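Predict the holo structure. Ligand: alpha-D-galactopyranose.
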Amino acid sequence: MEHKKFQMDYITLHTKHTTYQMGITESGFLLHLYYGPKAQGELGSLLTFADRGYSGNPYELRDDRTFSLDALPQEYPNYGNGDFRSPAFRLRDDSGVFGTDLRYESHRMIPGKYRIPGMPAAYAEEESGSCLKETRNSKYTAAYTLEVTLTDARTDIEVRLLYGVFPELDVITRCAVVKNAGNSTVFVNKAYSMCLDFLTGTYDLIHFHGRHAMERNFERIPVISGTQSFGSIRGASSHQHNPFFILADREATEDFGDCYGVSLLYSGNFKFEAERDQYCQTRVQIGISDEMFDYRLEPGEEFHTPEAALAYTPKGLSALSHIYHRLIRNHICRGFWKNRRRPILINNWEATYFNFTGKQILSIAREAANLGIEMFVLDDGWFGKRDDDSSGLGDWHVNEKKLGRSLAELSEEIHGMDMLFGLWIEPEMVNEDSELYKKHPDWAFVIPNKKPVMGRNQLVLDFSRKEVADFIFQEIAKVLDSIRVEYLKMDMNRSICDVYSALSGYQNYGKIMHNYVLGVYDFLERLHARYPRILIEGCCGGGGRFDAGMLYYTPQIWCSDDTDAIERIKIQHGTSFGYPISAVGSHVSAVPNEQTGRTVDIGTRAVCAMAGSFGYELDIGKLQAEEKAFVKEQILDYKKYWNLIHNGLYYRLHNPAKDREAAAWLFVSEDKSEALLNMISLDTHANAPAVYIRLKGLDAEKNYLIGDSGNVLNGNVLMHTGIAVPFHSGEYRAWQYHLRAL
Ligand code: GLA
């Protein structure tokens, strides 16, 4: 093994606390050298060289058997140049041959942050446009772009790697643009958004898996020899796996240790791969899934991968979450509602399901208005022939018979109660039993001569076809134009299968799933442009499309169809690693809970729902007088604390996998002058020892007044010993303490 001195050029990116460096060898190979704490200098001497058996050598270096791309860290590994680990990029030419040899061509620094046409991307400054507002935290805004161009001599393919550097945020974004600069058709068979190679280190992979009604469970597993992979081929980013992962040092905790985060801004099929290679080096990568992906590029055409946002901190998982919370809140979410307090809403879904009349809706709204709730959201069932989930989707005509009035009248009556009005839509879907399907059966994804797989009695509309998305947009816009409406819940209630577009030829099929996502993004962009003041909440059977890509269009997402407060603790805990609290739609619902049958008191339900964008989802008139009084208080509390909750630093104070006695979380203002502690008791025991919750992120020097108890404790003591969960009887009690620095 030798440490060689050979000629290399370097490209280095610095953020406030991190450095990212790549090296260009004389032959034009782009190697990845370093990503970690801030560093100076040229780091080529980190590389080691040895004659590696069965790891080949590039032709021009064939006399030097110590140079093998199979062992060296790569910036954007491509299949065919002798690196036999999983590639980030694979291309097939029109004669069916795989294999490229991408070499460095040039690079340049560009002021400002790149954008990606038709796709979400973190921005430094919001565009001045009808729907877009000034960024509040200007200190986070300075950003620049690095563009590195690689080319393949055989196919004339050009790959431009784009890096968006946010120095103050300690974030580097990546994406790739593939251009067919040759004369014949090629197929991009795999094109990930990023790859990170580590020369050394023993890492854990933290990822967030789940199922419908139990999304984003935290799992921490060692990166093992071989390849570990997860992802989605469901057409949405999915309930089952989330396109956000963390690579953490084995020793890293919430408060300490090397943590790398990667968040993919994409809402469709994706794949993650971690690979520990034969020399114990680690590679992690993420991007559009290569399953059923084969993107045909004609001469002159370009393909853009989605963006991945990378962050590194040596300060543990909490600090990593804080980076992503700031990034998403200030540089991914957009529009009028981005930094505003979201209206406290009531949604009728769990109160009525499909079975409602206009009169019932108005009565729920009136009760809610009396308690101080600010917006009424009319969920599924207001259109077409839609009295259950077997019919009506696709027919966006108001069912005035069911409402007993026009939707405009209903909305006006609700506004007359001093409430805003919101509406549920599910534009991407169609029931077979609908006027739309009868008229345009070829608009749905159905494979000829095969019975389609059904999901919730519905089929998926082919949003890769512009005329399909256009028609649905016009139909929904007709409704929106005819009423006063301040909010939309945009749902998507099945996975995509039977991918067949009646419009495209077979050779285009490797594009459809991606083009579908582009169609959805375009639909959302048009909603933004036309209705800049409407708050859009994303939804996909709860949190089945909860990703940073969606958050570019919808600043909040219904976190889960599971509204049980105790289940939500776990779901919201997992969600908090990569996503800000403001993004989490969370409601107080009825007991016994509709999903689990569990009964917990209304205080506990509210404390859990307040860790998000807060609302109610029940027939509120059915509450006891005492509970209604609590609701009034909860609303006042939320208004008082929302800024701390949405913009403060969030600390997880318990680990659901280990801590059986209590769950707790804390919001601390950036200046540490106030905090909001939330504690829920879990298992109860007779004659139990006291359980202390240790706080985090406070000012060690300051004393804090705890709620209205009159008790004062020093910040250091609160972080060292903590606050005891009060003795109580019965499980699932909640306490919320506001702490003020004196
Ligand atoms: C999905 C959503 C629910 C509700 C229903 C309506 O399941 O997650 O909140 O809107 O659809 O059909």
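The CA atoms of residues 625 and 650 lie 34 Å apart. Residues 349, 379-380, 424, 491, 493, 539, 541-542, 558, 561 surround alpha-D-galactopyranose (CB under 6 Å).
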